[in-house]
Design a protein that fits this description.
This protein is α+β, with helices and mostly antiparallel strands. Helices cover 34% and strands 28% of the residues. A 7-stranded antiparallel beta sheet has the order 4-3-2-1-7-6-5. Helix 1 packs across helix 4. The longest helix is centred in the C-terminal third of the chain and has 31 residues.
Length: 190
C-alpha cells in the first residue's frame, strides 16, 4: 500500500500528467490519499505517456513473457528514427482508452475484460506495458509506453490493478444480484 501512496504522490507532483479527462473537466488536484479513493478512478485517471509500440505474444500473462516483449518493443523503437506518439492513457473500471495528445483523436479503447496482464518492466523501469486480446484478430498483443518517471509507470500499473479490482467487485455484485433472482446459470433445467 505504501508503494501505491508513493506512486500517487509522484503523480500529484508530475507537471506532465493530464489530470483532466480529455479536456472536458475542470482541473482538480487529487488528494494525497487518491489510492484509497474510488471516485477519481470511476471518472478515469489520465496519464500522458509516449507510445513505444506493440508486439504479438503467445501467453496471456507472465513476467518473463512481458519482459521479453518489452525488450523487443524497445529494441524496435530504438532502431527507428521517429518521434514517439504522445498519448493520453485513461484508466477506468471500463478499461483503457488511448487518445492522441496533440489531435485529441481517439486512438484505441480497450475493455477491461480484454486486458490479461499489465506491468512495469524491471530493467526499463519507466516502461509500462499491458497485454490485451485484439478485438479484430483475437491475437494477444503487448503494448508498451514510456513514462517521464519511474513512479508514474508504477502509478499507471497500480491504477490498472485498482480498475481490475473495481470491475471485479461490480461484476460480483451484479452476478450475486442475478443469482438471488433465480438466474443461477449452474443450475440444471429439467
Amino acid at each position: 500500500m505504501e508503494a501505491l501512496r508513493a506512486a500517487g504522490r509522484a503523480v500529484l507532483r508530475s507537471p506532465r500528467l493530464a489530470r483532466h479527462g480529455l479536456g472536458l473537466r475542470r482541473r482538480r488536484k487529487l488528494p494525497e490519499s487518491w489510492a484509497d479513493m474510488q471516485e477519481p478512478l470511476l471518472e478515469g485517471m489520465c496519464f500522458t505517456l509516449k507510445y513505444l509500440g506493440m508486439t504479438l505474444v503467445e501467453k496471456p500473462k507472465g513476467e518473463d513473457m512481458a519482459a521479453a516483449a518489452i525488450r523487443r518493443i524497445v529494441a524496435t523503437a530504438r532502431v527507428g528514427a521517429r518521434k514517439f506518439q504522445k498519448v493520453i492513457l485513461t484508466v477506468s473500471p471500463r478499461g483503457i482508452s488511448l487518445q492522441d495528445a496533440d489531435t485529441k483523436e481517439m486512438v484505441e479503447n480497450i475493455s477491461i475484460y480484454r486486458i490479461s496482464y499489465c506491468t512495469t518492466d524491471k530493467l526499463q523501469n519507466k516502461v509500462f506495458a499491458y497485454v490485451a486480446q485484439s478485438q479484430e484478430s483475437g491475437a494477444l498483443e503487448c503494448h508498451a509506453f514510456l513514462s517521464p518517471k519511474k513512479k508514474i509507470a508504477q502509478a499507471v500499473t497500480l491504477t490498472v490493478a485498482q480498475a481490475f479490482q473495481m470491475a471485479l467487485d461490480v461484476w460480483e455484485a451484479t452476478h450475486a444480484a442475478w443469482r438471488s433472482w433465480g438466474g443461477d446459470s449452474t443450475a440444471q433445467q429439467d
